[in-house]
Amino acid sequence: MVGEVHISNESSSLTNPTNKTTTAPLHHLPILHPHSLYNLISPILPFQLHFYPPLIITLHFILTHQRFLIMAATGESQPAKHQEVGHKSLLQSDALYQYILETSVYPREPESMKELREVTAKHPWNLMTTSADEGQFLNLLLKLINAKNTMEIGVYTGYSLLSTALALPEDGKILALDINRENYEIGLPIIEKAGVAHKIDFREGPALPLLDQMVEDVKFHGSFDFIFVDADKDNYLNYHKRLIDLVKIGGVIGYDNTLWNGSLVAPADAPLRKYVRYYRDFVLELNKALAADPRVEICQLPVGDGITICRRIS
Ligand SMILES: C[S@@+](CC[C@H](N)C(=O)[O-])C[C@H]1O[C@@H](n2cnc3c(N)ncnc32)[C@H](O)[C@@H]1O
């Protein structure tokens, strides 16, 4: 699902020529170790001061804090931590995101996915749809892991479902769960036209009771190669408790929206939409739980609204 609220961060100032808070020039100021500093200045240091360590320590403090001291003097803001080690986020700016879409995503997007994306764009809840770059990522991931038996929780009009269906082999299967069939039927004619509807088993209704039934039946244990979760965020941990039994060892669960509109790092008093604020704590709790879960290897990707890839290892 595409995020709605964008919490601005300092990284965007690096690509915004009009924003004066850019920290890049200060970032390149050198930092010297005390020993190197001592070696550097010792030839010009009066003899007595060689035995006066506080001088070296003071000079070292000034050098190591120079960028912050200059920033304090000039009123510039402190650089974000990630800029200290090189900024690698893909979410630097809207222009960069647009560049990714136009260069690498839209030209490779299958015609059926483009059609579904355009139909969905006219729907009043279009904010819920999976973004085109995430659809491309899912499609490739499924091919990389040779997925055959999959599940999707949260279908809406079916953009991620179609990207999955197109990636699976002819005899591949997707158990698709959603409380709303009406929206699925918006996309269904396009999915049928793409020739992949036979791979989909759509079930209308809340996912949790169905998962409970499946967990009770051992034949479903370890039976899924891939599961994509993009539904009610307040149930993600409940889903995880069940899905961990249903995905095979070596299989993958993808949890969507795990960066939740960037709101996870917003200050407590930030003006967030009600639903963003409501689900934020659930997403924070999920991220902590996944990071601490020894049964999975994880990778948090800043694709779309953030997707956490979990590979079951035990
Ligand atoms: C963000 S949308 C899914 C977007 C979809 N993956 C796509 O590519 O367009 C979330 C969906 O979850 C569904 N949903 C919400 N609660 C659910 C539940 N308890 N069980 C199953 N589906 C649910 C909603 O009806 C909605 O269609």
Automatic annotation (TrEMBL):
Functional pathway: Aromatic compound metabolism; phenylpropanoid biosynthesis
Superkingdom of the organism of origin: Eukaryota
Family note: Belongs to the class I-like SAM-binding methyltransferase superfamily. Cation-dependent O-methyltransferase family.
EC number: 2.1.1.104
Protein name stated in the entry: Caffeoyl-CoA O-methyltransferase
Polar residues bias (residue ranges): 8-20
PANTHER family: CAFFEOYL-COA O-METHYLTRANSFERASE, O-METHYLTRANSFERASE-RELATED
Lineage of source species: Eukaryota, Viridiplantae, Streptophyta, Embryophyta, Tracheophyta
InterPro entries: Cation-dep_OMT, SAM-dependent_MTases_sf, SAM_O-MeTrfase
Example of a GO biological process term: circadian rhythm
Any GO MF annotation of the entry: caffeoyl-CoA O-methyltransferase activity
Annotated spans, Disordered: 1-20
Keywords: Lignin biosynthesis, Metal-binding, Methyltransferase, S-adenosyl-L-methionine, Transferase
